[in-house]
Amino acid sequence: MIEEILVGIRDFLQPYLPLLNTHNVDYLTRDHWNTYVPKWIRQEERIDLYDLFEQRYRECLPAKNFLEEFIDNIIEWKRKIEQITYTREKFEEEILQEKHKNELKSYKHTTRTFMSKKKEHEVEILAPVIDQLANMASTDSIIDYGSGRGYLGVKISHDYERNVLGIESCEATVHSSERRIELLLKYQKDLCDNTKYKTTSTIVDSETNFQKLFYQTFNCHSLSFLLCSLHACGSLSCSLLYHFVKNPSVRAIANVACCYHLLEEKYVANPFTNYYSETDPCSFPLSHRLIQEKTKLGRNARMLAVQSFERNKADHTLNAGLWYRALMQVILIEVYGLATDLQDIKLGKLTKKSLTFEEYVWKALDKLKLDKTKITSSMINDYWMRYESCHLQLHTFIQLKVLFSGLIEMMILLDRLVFLQESVPTASSYLVTLFDPIKSPRRWCLISLK
Description:
Layout: H1 2-13, H2 17-20, H3 32-36, H4 39-42, H5 49-59, H6 66-84, E1 86-87, H7 88-94, H8 117-136, E2 141-145, H9 151-160, E3 163-167, H10 171-187, E4 197-200, H11 210-218, E5 225-233, H12 236-246, E6 250-258, H13 288-292, H14 299-304, H15 309-314, H16 320-334, H17 357-368, H18 377-387, H19 391-402, H20 405-423, E7 428-433, E8 444-449
Parallel strand pairs: 1-7, 2-3, 2-5, 3-4, 5-6
Antiparallel strand pairs: 6-8, 7-8
């Protein structure tokens, strides 16, 4: 059933991939509205696709037009996904066993965590889940894969007194995690004797020996491990799955992925490096059927997978930043004659959010080191007036793409779930939505126990 839903989502998305692989900065310069948006959406004078989606999801009424039928198709896939995945509450009730639940140490709370509210939310939820999974897998040793500043690993080692090895390839990030622990010591004295969380700056590959690495770090032997990761970027999540499949000592995994745009694909070249390899074991797709049928997504479609419908709906700025950038693209091409390829114009984010468009233009020109005498305030205002009527259309265009975001993410994650079921058929594997979608859009956790 899971593979059937995966293939169904793939087939549903296929005709929309040209739309989903557009880049928003080219919205005006390449006339995305008329090129990619169906006529039955363009003819709507003003519509909020998010509101319509929620209304159709609640009411379950017969569709009256093409737009409602389109929305209903997405909703149908959403409901099918709900049938094969778990909410956190359902997972805790049906899968996690009460007898494996540990009591937290009474002194776990501290006035300072040196984490953002978002990270606190994620760590508070994921740490006890990992502790219970480790009990179910009968392992005391945890490896925090792509550990970053050690938010998750420190929490697990402190609250549940487990040995946790944080593996992070960036030495600067490892040093940053060490500084954070030093700060924690000032506010949480019981951490002083905590030798259960250690880090190593190592690049994990297919030959990495976790038992040897653990012994070198802790000076004690461990025969089994749980691998966990909180927002492991790109192909790092696939690497974690690879070790679960190939390494008998890895008894369980809990992986929250992110940065899908950094994944490599087997059948689509990276637009910046032109790299692709049909034999890369850690690229998309992983499952046999999708490999056999040479399934493709594309980088911009994968970028959409990190978007949250709920978070975007809560944003009332009408995508002002994207609108400024799209209009700036017109100026860069018409006034400065720059090429339209993505690689040629790298602007990134500008610091202050509450900029007027004119302020945005001047800051952008400074950042790109372009001649500011080529354009005047009057010219900037003329560009604004010429395209102002397109702003709401861009907002609808973004909404249209975001409606697909959950299906794209689910296609990537179900591909991984099917891969686990094919590769380790005796393991129990689950997709669980853990976090609040507004606080933490990358909220799905792929869990598997041998």
